[in-house]
Each structure stands twice: as structure tokens, then as C-alpha cells.
Specification:
Helices cover about 50% and strands about 10% of the residues. It is of the alpha+beta class.
Length: about 100
């Protein structure tokens, strides 16, 4: 994992990043995103989020829910960007995501 806050960010951002790691939320979010990418490689961020919401709402669905902002941040942390493709949700060509 690289730095989650930029050098130019305020101290509060650096503290929030440390808290995210210390609490285990960063690992939990990363694991959820990696699980999505294992099942649905090559999807857009919005596509992955829609699938995550659907799985979370299904009977016996996930107990942990990742919001769309956290999903995008964890994709940037632990996945590689693929070639742009048309996304039905965004209605335009967007980046696709794959496991590293």
C-alpha cells in the first residue's frame, strides 16, 4: 500500500489514513474490492459498485458494505486499470479494472 494522503494534504488527512489502517477498515475494504474483481474482472468502477450493492442486498448478502468513494480509492490501491470500454451505467467509455 502506498501513501493514502499526499504530502501536501493537511495533517487531518494523514491522521484519517492512519486511522483507516489501524481500524482494519482499509484491509476489509480492499478484501471486498479484490473479491469483486475476482468475480467480475474487466468491469468499470460504477459497474463493480452496482454489483456490490446487488450482492449486499441479496439474502445472505455481504455484511460489510463499501461506499462508492471507498471502492474507487481501493481500486486505485490494489487493481490495475484496463483499456476503456463502454459502461452502460455511465453511458460512456470508462476505465475497466483487473486484479494486479
Amino acid at each position: 500500500m502506498g501513501e493514502m494522503a499526499r504530502k501536501t494534504d493537511p495533517e487531518a488527512s494523514h491522521q484519517a489514513a492512519r486511522d483507516l489502517v489501524r481500524s482494519g477498515a482499509h484491509r476489509t475494504q480492499s478484501d471486498a474490492v479484490l473479491g469483486l474483481l475476482e468475480k467480475y474482472p474487466g468491469r468499470s468502477c460504477k459497474g463493480l459498485y452496482a454489483l456490490h450493492v446487488r450482492e449486499s442486498q441479496a439474502p445472505g448478502g455481504r455484511l460489510f458494505f463499501v461506499d462508492s468513494t471507498a471502492l474507487q480509492r481501493r481500486l486505485s490501491d490494489c487493481a490495475r486499470r484496463g483499456a476503456p470500454a463502454f459502461c452502460e451505467i455511465a453511458r460512456k467509455r470508462v476505465a475497466t479494472w483487473f486484479l494486479n
